[in-house]
Amino acid sequence: MSDSSPINSEAIKPNRLLLVDDEPGLRTAVQAYLQDEGFEVLTAVDGEEGWQKAQQMLPDLVISDVMMPRCDGYELLKRLRDDERLGGTPVIFLTAKGMTVDRTQGYQAGVDDYIPKPFDPEELVARVRNVVSRQDRLLAEAARFAGADVGQM
Q1: How crowded is residue 98: how many other Cβ atoms within 10 Å of its Cβ?
Q2: CA 74 to chain centre
Q3: pLDDT by residue (tens digit) across 7-41?
Q4: What letter does residue 148 receive in the DSSP assignment?
Q5: For burial by CB atoms within 10 Å, which of 40, 83, 132, 143 has the most?
């Protein structure tokens, strides 16, 4: 007898990513590539819209450009880190500012990873998966110690 019970869709929820970039072509291409890799991707055109969407969706990861109008990547990162619900959300900067001094500034500001443009899409996916899986492990470990379900965190 074979077990033909349906797979519980709650068990395999795609990671929710927020992609924040003011360049429409890049935003569309990166969104499509990440969605093809199984991620749920919402987009924002600048840090201000990204901040609003992050508060609503509570993403598993934020990927942000640095240089944007209204609210740049550093201001968005600061708002995320200062927020009680979003402070632990991993952030990756995906930016044309790729000099060592720029990357160092990003890491000192609290970014989890820094990917200079132009970038290889396969490397982007690998680094996104790495950051997301590290965050999932941390949440699972915290839940284990707290005696809670990860879905409640």
Answers
A1: 15
A2: 15
A3: 444 456 889 999 999 999 999 999 999 999 999 99
A4: -
A5: 132
